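Chain and conformation:
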Amino acid sequence: MSNSATKINVCKQATYILLSAALFLTITLSASASSHHTLKESTLKNDVSRCVNAIQTQSNHPKYQSTRQRAMMCMLTELQTYQQKSMTARQQYFAYKAQAWLNYAIHQDSMNSRSSAGLQAAQNAETILAALKNGTERDLSLIQDIPSNSALMRPDLWATLSALKESDGITSAPRELAFSEVALIWAATNQCERGWRESGSHFRMADRWLEQAREAYVNAHDSSANIALEDLIVSYYEQYAPLDASEDVCHGQVLTPIH
């Protein structure tokens, strides 16, 4: 292998290591408190372009990292503003959901995937960030239909997610609900594309997030509210169980609220 090819491979490896480290920090660490500032309305395209241009001037930035990857890393940074406790639960939920979509998109890029799933994930994140920056997140629906490149698998987990959302569970656990939802979609897409061995880790991740969300909800409510939640989970499960894509065929799914 030539010296130039070796340098390119080393730079690519460094890029993926930096991406993984950055994603780990954004998921596991809480952003530090910052002084309040006024959010000015502007288009997402201009914001991302400005951030990408700033990143390009940094001498320590990997030379071979794509503009697309830099834009996604930029958006991860922008989203931290809306993940603060001072924001509403709805703003936090959507900010974490956009982060989860970006995690998915960056992973797809790092795998050089030819699937359209990564591009759709990035577009979902862009839509959410634009709404947050323009103060129109109220127009975003809490009930998201499952996209055509995924399917309704694990109806038990989807039932818990939908019941918690309907019971205002995002007030108690906005991050956990956001991450679990994208993990469920991600897992099913993997299973349809590459088989069940590629979906297990993401289903387990969704299960853990939902357990934490459920615990947070139980601790924040009285016994009558918790009983009502359990009844709602059962109702959603009865609705979702017949829709389970047992043959691993992804065709999307429209999700209808019970109430």
About this structure: DSSP finds nine helices and no strands in the chain. Residues 83 and 204 are 24 Å apart (CA to CA). Residues 3-26+41-243 form one domain.
